[in-house]
Amino acid sequence: MSEPQDTSSISFTALYTGHVWAKDGLSAPFFRTRGGAFLYGALAPFEYVGRQIAGGNIRTFLLQRHLLIDHRLHQLIEDGVTQVVEIACGLSPRGHRFCQQYPQLTYIETDLPDMARRKQQLLTEHHVLSERHKVIPINIFADDGDLSLAHVLGQLDTNKPVVVITEGLVNYFPLAVISEFWRKLATALQRFARGIYLTDNYPLYQGMPFYHTLKGLGRLLGAISRSQVGFHFHSDEQTIGHFQQLGFDAFTVHNPADFYGQLPIPQTRGNPMVRILEGTVF
Ligand SMILES: C[S@@+](CC[C@H](N)C(=O)[O-])C[C@H]1O[C@@H](n2cnc3c(N)ncnc32)[C@H](O)[C@@H]1O
């Protein structure tokens, strides 16, 4: 068995996003952490300036992505999905919220071993885990063994559809590296009645407002998290073509701006920085 890549230097970012969800009323209060509050406070002045000058900031696109993934997940559950796997769950409250709302749901949360342990402890302390709501470890770069995607998906019923989510993960890696995972995922989803993949992605479309700012932010985040933050796509067409080549049968790129009238999501002044990608394997 080969040792998968160690990417745990990224994990602290989950404290920040976890605090954003808690501050915005998306989490039960027990999801708040001291580390998250500290990072949230430290970034507050930059967030204020970003909002005033650019008409949008990190919190804007975090909330856009989180609420849009929630929206698609609600729709897929209403359409009959009963199994969800959330990879790189961090301190996201989604599993807790959805399990409370949908008693028919099986929900597996997964993250690197340390973060998974932390989440498991948190949810156990608050008595919210059950047979149908579990936390187990994964490393998306493990090809076999207990940390592999195959092991996680092996806990589910392949005769039923499944939704796999990654949020706040894929742009920490260059396209060639994360594509290995996407190809593995598309192949694994073929075993299910239907497999749907939802992820956020930060594109770098020419003409996007603050193109250079976004590139600079990426470099900064890459340095702090010791990862190779990358922007993968330059157009929706390129995105769709790429995922079809990796084995997804149908693919849609959702722009948060198309949901402004419909969902209570914060609005950006210009073209939103984030997209939600949805790939299906039949
Ligand atoms: C920005 S946080 C996002 C957390 C959560 N999804 C959210 O939106 O609040 C990134 C997460 O990716 C996880 N992660 C980093 N490398 C990973 C890997 N190789 N496999 C699985 N998860 C990983 C980190 O531990 C961290 O929880």
CATH architecture: 3-Layer(aba) Sandwich
- What is the CATH H-level superfamily? Vaccinia Virus protein VP39
Mean pLDDT: 90
H/E topology pattern:
HHHEHEHEHEHEHHEE
Count of domain modules: 1
Helix content: 40-55%
Question: Which value, in Å, is the CA radius of gyration?
Answer: 18 Å
Ranges where pLDDT stays below 50 over 5 or more residues in a row are none
Tell me the span between the first and last alpha carbons.
Answer: 30 Å
Strand content: 5-15%
Folded structure, characterized:
This protein is an alpha/beta fold. It has a single domain (8-281), classed as Rossmann fold. The chain contains 9 helices and 7 strands; from the N terminus they run αααβαβαβαβαβααββ. The protein has a 7-stranded mixed beta sheet with strand order 3-2-1-4-5-7-6, with helices on both faces. Helix 1 crosses helix 2. The longest helix has 21 residues, at 34-54. 39% of the residues are buried. The mean pLDDT is 90. It binds S-adenosylmethionine (SAM). S-adenosylmethionine is lined by residues 7, 10-11, 13-14, 17-18, 87-90, 92, 111-112, 115, 138-141, 167-169.
Fill in the keyword field for this structure:
282 residues; alpha/beta; Rossmann fold; 7 strands; 42% helix; binds S-adenosylmethionine
